[in-house]
Design a protein that fits this description.
It is built from 22 helices and 23 strands. The chain is an alpha/beta fold. The protein is globular. Helix 5 packs across helix 6 and helix 18 runs parallel beside helix 19.
C-alpha cells in the first residue's frame, strides 16, 4: 500500500460483516462470519478463496444486492464514512453505479443480448449522470476507447454476441466506470478468459486505476492473479477471513494452513524445468474435496513403438449459409491441416486461445464433429471410414471429458446410473456385475460406492468432474480427450483432479489428448505440447522444449501472459494490447497457403511465420 493509502481514511471499511440466508425450515444459516477488512484510496485488495468460501456473498452484501426477504446482513459497511446498511433503498440505488460499481465473471449473462452495447452503456449515463442522448453517445464512445476497444465508434451498435469474451468484459468495465466510482468490485472478472485476454484485462484494470484514482476490491481464486494485482489480501475459508495482510507477507510467510494450501496447489509456470515426467501437485486435508488417491496397482505401460493415435492433415470446416436460398457464403476454417501422433501412455496437450480450433480438433478425433478431410488412425484403424456399429465400437477406445461436469450429467439420473449407462449400452456387464463395476469405478476416482444413489446437484464441482472421469473409464478406453477438464475448478480442486488424471495414467496406461488454455497446468501434466493458432499447429514438441525454448511468437505471447504467483513482479508493467485472435471465417473457395515447418531440436517443430507476426525471432 502506498504511504498515502496508509494515512488516508479508507474508501471502504467493513467491520464484523455477517450474512445469513433463510433455510427451508425458516431458520437463518450464517454464510459469512464476522469478516473485517478495509480498502484504502487507490488500493487493490483481493478477496481470495474457493467456491463456497463466501467471497462473492461478501461483495453482494457490500452492494446490498441480496434479497431482504431471505437474507440478513449484520455488522458495519462504510463507504467514505457513510454506513451503507443504514441507507434506505432509494439512496442505496444512487450509491450503486455512482460510487460503487461491480463487474461479474460472465459478461454475457450481465449484458442484455437484445440491445447494442453502446445503448446499454449510454443508459447508465442518462440514468445516473442525467446526460442527454447525444452527450451520452459521445461519452460512451470515449469510454469504449478508454477500455481500448478498437474502432469504438463502429462498435457502438454491435450486439454482445458479436464480441469475443475479452471484448465483452471490456464493455462491462466501461459500463462500471461510466459514473467514475470511488470503488470497483471485480468478482472473478478473468476466470473464464483465455490467458492472453486475462492478462489484457488485468493490465487494463491497473491502468484505469492509475488514471482515475479508484480503489479496487478484486475477488478471485487464482493466486497468480492475486500476486499480480493486489496490494493486500484477505484469505477466506468457510465464510471466515482466516488471514489478512500485505500480499507479499501472505505469499512469503503464510500463517494459516489454508493459505499454505492455496499457494502450494498453484501450478507455477517454470516449476517443471529439468523434470522429465509429469508430476503431481501437493493436496492438503483442509480441502473440501475427498482427496483419496487412486490405488497404486500399477499397470505396465504399453509398448510405445507405434502411435496409439495418428492424425494426418486433419481439416474441419463449417459452412456459413445466408440469403433466402441458404446458399453457402463462406466457411469457418476451424481446423486446418493438423497432424500429430499420441503414443500409448502419453499426454499431448493442445493449447491456445478460444477460437484457435483445439476443442474442434478433439471433437473431430472422436467423430463427434465430422471432419472435412484427413486421416485419423486409432490403433492402426482409419476411423474416418467407420460408420454405425463399427464407429460405436471404436468409441469404446476413445472417451471424452468436458469442461462443465454439471452439463455433462443428467440432473434427473443418479450418478450410479450415469456411470452404468455406457456399460449397459455396450453390453459389457449384466445383472449384479454392473453394480460391482460401478462401485469399483467410483472407488477408483476417489469416491465411495455409497454415492451411487445420489444426484449430480448433491455434489461439488470437483466431485462431479470425478464422476465424469469414472464414466469415461467405464469402457476401459485407451485414449481420453480431456477438453478443458479442469478450467472451471478452484485451485485446490484443480490440483486434485490433475493428480487423479496422472494417477490413472500411471495405473492404467492411459493416453490423453489434453485441451487447455492454462499454460501452467499444461506444463505440469504434459509429455508433449502442440500450440494452435487459427486452426493450425504453429509449434509442437516435447514439453520441456516448447516451454524452455519457445520459438514461435504466438507461443511466446501465451507464455508471457501467464500471471506469475510472485508479488515482487507486481510493479512490472505489461504492454496493454487490444489485439485478438483473428477470425477463422473465409470466403468459399479459399485455400490456405502450404505451411513450412523446421525442426529446431529432436521432435520440436515450429511453423515458419509471415509478416503478421512482425520481425519476432
Amino acid at each position: 500500500m502506498s504511504a498515502k493509502a496508509e494515512t488516508a481514511s479508507p474508501v471502504l471499511f467493513v467491520k464484523n460483516l455477517s450474512t445469513s440466508f433463510r433455510m427451508q425450515d425458516g431458520r437463518f444459516h450464517k454464510i459469512v462470519k464476522d469478516v473485517s477488512f478495509d480498502v484504502g484510496p487507490r488500493e487493490t485488495v483481493a478477496l481470495v478463496g474457493e467456491s463456497g468460501s463466501g467471497k462473492s456473498v461478501t461483495a453482494l452484501s457490500i452492494m446490498r444486492l441480496l434479497a431482504a426477504s431471505n437474507s440478513r446482513v449484520e455488522g458495519s459497511i462504510q463507504l467514505g464514512g457513510t454506513e451503507l446498511l443504514a441507507l434506505p433503498e432509494a439512496k442505496m440505488q444512487a450509491v450503486r453505479g455512482n460510487e460503487i460499481a461491480m463487474i461479474f465473471q460472465e459478461p454475457m449473462t450481465s449484458l442484455n443480448p437484445v440491445l447494442p452495447i453502446g445503448s446499454q452503456i449510454a443508459e447508465v449515463l442518462t440514468r445516473h449522470r442525467a446526460m442527454s442522448q447525444s452527450a451520452a453517445h459521445a461519452e460512451t464512445i470515449r469510454l469504449l476507447e478508454k477500455v481500448r476497444i478498437p474502432e469504438a465508434r463502429s462498435r457502438f451498435a454491435e450486439y454482445p454476441h458479436r464480441l469475443s469474451g475479452g471484448m465483452r468484459q471490456r464493455v462491462m468495465i466501461a459500463m462500471a466506470l461510466a459514473c467514475r466510482p470511488k470503488l470497483l468490485i471485480a468478482d472473478e472478472p478473468t476466470t473464464a478468459l483465455d490467458v492472453t485476454i486475462q492478462a489484457q484485462t488485468l493490465a487494463l484494470i491497473k491502468a484505469l486505476q492509475d488514471e482515475d484514482g479508484m480503489s479496487v476490491l478484486f475477488i478471485t481464486h487464482d493466486m497468480g492473479v492475486v500476486a499480480e494485482i493486489a496490494d493486500r489480501t484477505v484469505v477466506m475459508f468457510k465464510g471466515e477471513a482466516v488471514e489478512v495482510g500485505r500480499t507479499e507477507d501472505i505469499f512469503n510467510q503464510p500463517r494459516h494452513p489454508y493459505s499454505r494450501t492455496l499457494l502450494s496447489s498453484v501450478p507455477k509456470l517454470g516449476s517443471m524445468t529439468g523434470v522429465p515426467e509429469p508430476m503431481r501437485l501437493p493436496v492438503f486435508e483442509t480441502s473440501r474435496e475427498n482427496a483419496e488417491t487412486v490405488p497404486k496397482a500399477r499397470r505396465s505401460k504399453p509398448g510405445a513403438d507405434q502411435p496409439l493415435l495418428s492424425v494426418r492433415n486433419l481439416t474441419t470446416r463449417f459452412d456459413i449459409r445466408s440469403g433466402l436460398l441458404r446458399r453457402v457464403s463462406g466457411r469457418v476454417h476451424a481446423v486446418e491441416n493438423v497432424s500429430f501422433d499420441i503414443m500409448p501412455g502419453e499426454t499431448l496437450s493442445l493449447v491456445g486461445e478460444s477460437g484457435c480450433g483445439k476443442s474442434t480438433t478433439g471433437r473431430s478425433v472422436t467423430r463427434l464433429v465430422e471432419p472435412t478431410s484427413g486421416e485419423i488412425r486409432l490403433v492402426g484403424t482409419d476411423i474416418m471410414e467407420l460408420n454405425g456399429r463399427a464407429l460405436r465400437a471404436m468409441r469404446r477406445n476413445v472417451q471424452m471429458i468436458f469442461q462443465d461436469p454439471f452439463a455433462s450429467l443428467d440432473p434427473r439420473t443418479t450418478v450410479g446410473a450415469a456411470v452404468a449407462e455406457p456399460i449397459l449400452t455396450h453390453e459389457l456387464e449384466t445383472g449384479p456385475h454392473v453394480k460391482e463395476r460401478v462401485a469399483d469405478l467410483l472407488r477408483r476416482v476417489g469416491l465411495g460406492p455409497d454415492v451411487a444413489g445420489r444426484y449430480p446437484h448433491e455434489f461439488s464441482g470437483g466431485q462431479r468432474q470425478r464422476i465424469c472421469i469414472a464414466r469415461a473409464l467405464a469402457l476401459d478406453p485407451k485414449l481420453i480427450v480431456a477438453d478443458e477438464a479442469v478450467s472451471a475448478l478452484d485451485v485446490s480442486i484443480k490440483a486434485q483432479v490433475m493428480n487423479l488424471l496422472l494417477d490413472l495414467q500411471e495405473t492404467l496406461g492411459l493416453a490423453y489428448l489434453f485441451i487447455s488454455h492454462d499454460m501452467a497446468v499444461v506444463e505440469r501434466v504434459s509429455h508433449r505440447v502442440a500450440v494452435m493458432y487459427l486452426g493450425e499447429i504453429v509449434e509442437i514438441g516435447p514439453r520441456s522444449a516448447v516451454f524452455e525454448n519457445p520459438q514461435h511468437p504466438y507461443t511466446r505471447k501465451l507464455i508471457a501472459a501467464v500471471p506469475i504467483p510472485d508479488p515482487a513482479r507486481r510493479g512490472v508493467k505489461r504492454p496493454l494490447l487490444s489485439d485478438e485472435i483473428r477470425s477463422p471465417v473465409r470466403p468459399t473457395g479459399y485455400e490456405p497457403a502450404i505451411r513450412v515447418y523446421r525442426e529446431v531440436s529432436p521432435g520440436h517443430f515450429v511453423q515458419q511465420w509471415g509478416e503478421e507476426w512482425g520481425n519476432a525471432a
